[in-house]
Amino acid sequence: MAPSPSYRERQELMDAGRLALTLSRIGHEILERHPDIRGTVLVGVRTRGVPLARRLARVLREAAGVEPPVGALDITLYRDDLTTVGPQPVLRGTDIPTSIDGRTVVLVDDVLFTGRTVRAALDELIDFGRPSRIELAVLVDRGHRELPIHADYAGRTLTTTRDEVVQVRLREEDGDDRVVLLERAAAPAPRARKAPAAPTRAPARAGKTRGPSRTRRRRR
Amino acid sequence: MTPPSYPHRHLLGIEPLEPAHIQAVLDTAEALREVLDRPIKKVPALRGKTVVNLFYEPSTRTRASFEIAEKVLSADSLSIATSTSSVQKGETLLDTAKNLEAMNPDMIVLRHSASGAPHFLARHCRSAIVNAGDGAHEHPTQALLDALTLRQKKGRLEGLRVAIIGDVMHSRVARSNVWLLTKMGASVVLCAPPTLMPPGIETLASVTYRIEEAVEGADAIMMLRLQQERMTGGYFPTVREYHARFGLTAERARRAGKDVVILHPGPMNRGVEIASEVADGPYSVILDQVTNGVAVRMAVLYLLLGGAET
Questions:
Q1: Which of the four, A189, B63, B83, B298, has the lowest number of CB atoms within 10 Å?
Q2: From the CB of residue B12, how many other CB atoms can be counted at a distance below 10 Å?
Q3: What is the mean pLDDT of residues B104-133?
Q4: For residue A216, what are the CA distances in angstroms to A77, A84, A204, B258, B310?
Q5: Whether residue B6 has pLDDT greater than 60
């Protein structure tokens, strides 16, 4: 899955080794704050938050001997733009394997950007019970919040422009472990050609992207 | 991997759908079923959308299941039973629909005794139209919930041998199921008395007049209700004789495959097309069908009303 030609890689933010170290650090930070990890549930936000949450659970098992339960949250039904995004987003389902009442829930996602996904995730979680506390762990915090939301654990915090895209690639979903910063390629000057050039699209499915790049397509 | 998607504005029938569209509805229903097991069975997905359920024929399951699906997804809905509406004063279908549309609903769910009624509305209305059963033509959400049930119980649809038995002539459920199952690679055998087998149906599925032959080795048996309210002539001598020749008894069910599942779209005529011991027996998945009905209707609502309008 190569990024679409309208975006090009500007910088590698993490390679596989760095990504593993970062997750290990986040895991230890969680443990530091919650020495009794038994009261904790990790909930990954689909798509890439879920494999990240599973990896964090393994880090915790190795460090504390206890593996917390891992859930998966599909926030699609709670999106604030559900009726304005292009075609209906594909549903993959939510799976919370245990009661979250009175426990600490650590939400896990790959990139924290506007905060709207986290808002939706909070609303959905609350429909499953009343956790004593909800925290947020992300691999990359890229700024540009539109809501009063912050990460309790961030693998890396960086300043980006809105045109850029932080792409997290994970073995489980994309075949390799990598975090890259993409930037919009300068659009080539339109030349008079027989056939009009195909419209360029943001890399909608090539790894999760968080950027002002949601493709809007018309529905019949 | 391109994600499955449903590209149509309406759901009028199974016949015009491609296998990928059917797959998209089933996968979406599978993802949505979990919502029904939550402590709070409500998600905000369709807030601000309005759905009108317009039922020109009696219905318990289909209507209740559409209403629950609408409420779970937070759509506002109202149901109009024509027996207590201005239809009794002679208003035409189109006038009723146009007047309802003047109140700006986003979707109309229509059940009507005339085949093609939802297609007619789709041509004249702005709203998304869902066919909840039109005459003896199609009942797409029923076929989809049957398929979801089969997929859950059997793990697949492709290669299944499915017997559809009973009043095929008057059954929109049978037609939708024949389309769906054959599109998804299952093989279908239809069984009915010759008088209740519509002419020409053998181009769509294989046909037999002996229930023993239909049931033999079947992975699934779908029983159809004997629709006596639609019968205008003498199609069979007596109900007792119909049961004796075409009713699904425990003895007949034993001829089927070892893990056969038995479906019925309801309402059942116990002791007519299906014996009570079979309907309540271990192979019956009739109540799973009802639960899946809600999930399938949620999927249809989501696929037609979620996403951008234009």
A1: A189
A2: 23
A3: 97
A4: 18, 9, 11, 50, 10
A5: yes
Is A2's pLDDT higher than 50? no
The pair of structure tokens assigned to A75 is: 């926030």
Tokens standing for B262?
């038995």
Residue B309 pLDDT > 80, yes or no? no
Q: Do B32 and A82 touch (CB under 8 A)?
A: no
pTM as predicted: 0.88
CA angle B198, B199, B200 (to 5 degrees): 115
| Angstrom distances, CA of residue A38 to CA of A102, A104, A107, B68, B196 | 12, 9, 16, 37, 64
Instruction: Evaluate whether A205 touches B4 at the Cβ level (below 8 Å).
Output: no
Using the beta-carbon criterion (under 8 Å), do A219 and B27 form an inter-chain contact? no
Which residue does chain A place closest to B73, by CA atoms?
Answer: A77
Instruction: Describe chain A by its helix, strand, coil percentages, rounded to 5.
Output: 25, 25, 50
Q: CB A127 to CB B40 under 8 A?
A: yes
Mean pLDDT calculated for residue range B266-291: 96
Average pLDDT of chain B is 94
Output the CA torsion sign for A37, A38, A42, A43.
negative
Greatest alpha-carbon pair distance for chain A in Å reads: 67
Three-class HEC string of B17-86: CCHHHHHHHHHHHHHHHHHHHCCCCCCCCCCCCEEEEEECCCCCHHHHHHHHHHHHCCCEEEEEEHHHCH
- C-alpha triplet A28, A31, A34: angle, nearest 5°: 155
Please name the member of B1, B27, B308 whose beta carbon is closest to the beta carbon of A219: B308
For residue A101, is pLDDT > 90?
yes
Mean per-residue pLDDT over chain A, rounded: 86
Examine the predicted complex and report whether its ipTM is higher than 0.85: no
B307 interfacial to chain A (CB closer than 8 Å): yes
If DSSP codes are grouped into helix, strand and coil, which group holds residue B99?
helix
CB contact under 8 A, A124 and B43: yes
Chain A nearest-CA distance from B145, in A, is 18
For residue range B25-39, list pLDDT tens digits in order: 999 999 999 999 999
Neighbouring C-beta atoms of residue A193, cutoff 10 Å? 7
